[in-house]
Amino acid sequence: FRSSSELSSSHAPGFAKLNRRDGAGGWSPLVSDRYQWLEVDLGERTKITAVATQGRYGSSDWLSSYLLMFSDSGHNWRQYRQEDSIGFFPGNSNADSVVQYKLQQPAVARFLRLLPLDWNPSGRIGLRLETYGCPYTSDVVSLRRGGGGLVYRLSPGTRRTSKEVVSLKFKTQRNSGTLLQAEGHEGSSLHLELQRGKLLLVKLSCCEAKLTPSSGPPRRLASLGSLLDDQHWHHVVLERRSTHLNLTVDKHTERVQLPAEFSQWDVEQLFVGEAHRSHFQNSFHGCIENLLYNGQNLIENDYLTVKKKTKKKQIVGNVTFSCGESVSVAVTFPGPQSFLQMPWATPTTFRTWNKAGLLATFSLQQGGVAWLHLSDSRLQLLIHQGDKELIFPGVFAGSDLSDGQWHSVDLTSKRGHITISVDEEEGGVAHATPSFPISTGEGQVFFGGCPADADGPECRNLFDGFQGCMRLLTLDDRPVDLIAVQQRLLGNYSQLQIDMCGIMDRCSPSRCEHGGRCSQSWTVFHCNCSDSGYDGATCHSSVYEQSCEAYKHNGNTSGHFYIDVDGSGPIGPQLVYCNMTGNDTWMVIQHNNTELTRVRAPPGSSQHSVHFQYPSEEEQLQAAISQSEHCEQELSYHCRKSRLLNTLEGSPFSWWLGGPGPGRVQTYWGGAQPGSQQCACGLQGDCVDPEHYCNCDADRMEWTEDSGLLTHKPSLPVRSLVLGDVQRPGSEAAYRVGPLLCRGDRNFWNAAFFDKETSYLHFPTFHGELSADISFLFKTTASFGVFLENLGIKDFIRIELSSSTQVIFSFDVGNGPLEVRVESSVPLNDNRWHRVRAERNVKEATLRLDDLPVATQEAPADGHFHLQLNSQLFIGGTASRQKGFRGCIRSLQLNGVTLDLEERAKITPGVRPGCPGHCSSYGSLCQNQGRCTERENGFHCDCSLSAFSGVFCQTEVSASFKSGTSVRYTFKEVYEVSRNSSALPSSIYSDATLRGENVSLSFRTSQSPALLLYVSSYYREYLALLINKHGEDGLEVRYKLDSSREADVLRSSVKSVANGQLHTVSVSRLTDSVSLQILSSSSDSDDMDPDLARLGSQGFAGCLSVVHFNTISPLKAALLHPDSSPVSISGPLVQSSCGSAASANPYAAENTHHLISHSSTLDSAASIRLNGNTTPNVVFPAGVIAVVIFVMVTGMAVAARFLYRRKETYRNQEVKGVKREDSQDFPFNSRADSQNVSGENPKEFFM
């Protein structure tokens, strides 16, 4: 036993053995601080499996936590860490009880050192210690730089086994060198190379191994490990099985697929240490232990054959069979407050991950201070002398000094010249020459930083402190004795770790998932997720939805989308086309040839083969097909005297391959059943020749075809096609394989309803040790309940609704419970769907609720991070059956895997599969008067009463009119409707009496004058909307509600509407009897006002869109349903995008204009109402006419729509206060008054 100090001779380390009571009953240091240590020398290297601690007997002195260090030589200590992160161990709570800790991974070392972290605050450090383990035997060889190595020639019997395994341990101070070469026949070889502290597996072919001028660069197969030049033992295993190889470095394994040339490759020679014909010229310099080939120790008894060369073994160069270590004492600066103060000395080597930090501060002989620091991973010297401040930007040897590698620094000053050399062995020398004399070499040097209370001329904290390691410090050209520094015999220091380098590579192995790029500083790592398709602290969660169905319910329309079928799982995103134009949402995956293709068999071949390439990878395709409810692919064959499948008894002439991988042979055709060897006509019994089951098998000279859909998902997609009967004289054929189409998402609507607080579903244990993401949707009327819970011995994970406005994500991985909360400003128990997404990884935990800001809780920097669960996963409740959830949970996914709630709910009391009622959440997606209707799985937007079409009633139906085009919509008489109520859909004849109308349309034209809209009854009442040249191309509305009086005229203040830009107009009126006409050319005008008829005869050229009459859309009916709607069309009516956003002027500003009445006086009861300062309502009392006109001059077009409705009878009323004006452009004569007439028996309406 040894120690840093002792309180007295009776507190010496020799009394520190477990359960010992003599002396003072244990060890206590002179001072209780964190710089004390107790060391045990086991005499030889031992496999240590456990440690046990006690406090000092009969006292109040014990440790509550401590660190463990191991070493082979008593120097260069290495801290033992649990789970690669936790460095401290729990200690005692009293002086006498024994606390034993079993090491997760045994440690092999001769020396053990325990460092106190915390102790009883009412006492001091007191300790008794015991270690447990077993003997460790090894055979060691030491290889020196300069070509030392071993050569082993393996006999054929030794190497021909089902697998080959090479294992060894090594340690070195050099970061590069050839460790092992396995050479096979014809010179092909595998190499293990150390390069910048990483172990590379490299393949060299025969030519590459001989380094011929034509040989290319070696192929890197794998890279593992980091900081392997730390002079500690590292374990390497190379295991080859058939065509793959497993490379293990310490505890991390990577599977490698070997090139095809190694499928029959056998190891003939092993070269250890020597760079034999290697692409890398550096030989290994260090020690190798327990080199085994298929369990055979290749080093054992080699000492006896040093002077006796054998055919199987050969020793080359400087080789010894022991491992003598050169002592290299390092010092670690773990925190920003760390510093080391010394008489004049210079740093020799350093390593760090930080891009910035102060290496050294020193005084100048002429007065002034110099700072040597890292800036953006480059070395920079700043000198301050009086009022002079110089920066030498040329001192930048090496471009990346924060790469974790050892970098050498040499600072010299001669004759007023400062020379700084960085990595001089690599040629990185930089010189800086100031314009005035500068000399160094006196006073104090502060390494890493300055004391916290220092602010004098000798040391000022202008830069962040250095975090990293230094070694080989020199004082008067002699190495500094850092052990003397540790014993306070030389210099001064604070918060240092002496005789060890505590650097960690947090990016090896990388915690960044899905190809995220890892970078790090001394304390943390960061993942760059750009271009990966994932986000989060570790690039764990996908930024894409899992299906087209999910995109649709986010309000998207048809287009190309990336989908990630397994979310955070290993399958990457794929680009597909989502067709959302119909009731079903289709995912479309193209391949390299979806066109109808003529068959041309190659000369001399009786078959024509074609292969189809899909842009998605194999696992992406299969996952997309698996999660879809239905998939199909068109397969068609056009033939003339070219047979297809032959008879049921005969061998098929043609076949196709489909399904996973290269596919399986299929001998049925599109539209038939798998294995039937038939086509669709054979299944339906309508083939051209009843004796055959395919049309093409009739072998006729006329062209015919066999086409249909393949719907058997296990046989999709079609991989290749083989056509056999294509070479006979007169044979002609063509084929088409359509894109793969899939609809439905089996996971998106998978739901369960929990109707009791005591009901729940249970699933196997959730495994999310390092990273876990959970997502689901819920709706409820309850104010609390547990959504999910999984317990371990101590660890747990839980998501719950804690109140009507709060969701909590809580877990414990051994550091104590941690909670992440999200508070909503609106109630969550509103029976609407809400989305929850929780993620926990080694860096942080996050919780997202709907579109609220994400809540984040960082994980402890040096804490546990493995989530260890062992009970069942409970959904909708807990194991205690308390605080259960009442409501619906849908689309529950854990790490990208969907739990089948519906199947489990079918066999679970108190839980029902499925959950209806989606319109309350998704109904807002139905736009433009579309109605949301419920489905068993999802919802549907009914656009029958909307002028729009599309999945969300968002697609405008536009038409481009020419002067010869007209559309007429005719209503039946009321008495005729009652006589034949089944003639047309009943919806057309509902609401026989109208008390008003709402008319809207959009138009784009350069024509003036022009009649845009005309609504009339059989009794010559009408409503007209026109562009009138009177008033500079203004918009004008005319109402005539009494056939014996002239029309009332309302003119807009907006001018120049015939400017080719898009304008939107809305007209709303109460209590009127009207019909609707939309025309753009001359039409039947028997019942039309003759003046308007003359205007209509001029025709209309332009675009009409968004024409709406109450709830009827006549243009939509004319374009989409001309056969089932009472419309008549004359002239060319062309559906167009002229009313769409793409055709609108993108630079036009959007303005809202108002039509006003051109009346000289208004009745005292008339008023103008502004609703939101945008919508004027001009109310004409007594006449019961209310007209509201909105004119929007917009840069975005709106698709055309024509809406239709029937008229009603109305009472005679008088319109007062409206002045009639004659138009200068149209021969309309306006009288001074108007009377209303009754029209109780309307006959016909047209447009």
Automatic annotation (TrEMBL):
Please, which domain of life does this record's source organism belong to? Eukaryota
Tell me which PROSITE patterns the record gives.
EGF_3 (PS50026), FA58C_1 (PS01285), FA58C_3 (PS50022), FIBRINOGEN_C_2 (PS51406), LAM_G_DOMAIN (PS50025)
| Domain spans labelled EGF-like | 503-540, 916-954
Its membrane topology = Single-pass type I membrane protein
Where is it found, in Gene Ontology cellular component terms? membrane
Q: Where is the region Disordered?
A: 1215-1247
Membrane-spanning intervals of the chain: 1178-1204
Query: What are the cysteine partners in each disulfide bond?
Result: C888-C915
Domain Laminin G stretches: 141-323, 320-501, 750-915, 958-1138
Q: State the PANTHER family in the record.
A: CONTACTIN-ASSOCIATED PROTEIN-LIKE 4, PIKACHURIN-LIKE PROTEIN
Please state what the protein is called.
Contactin associated protein like 3
Which species is listed as the source? Answer: Salarias fasciatus
Recorded name of the encoding gene: LOC115405451
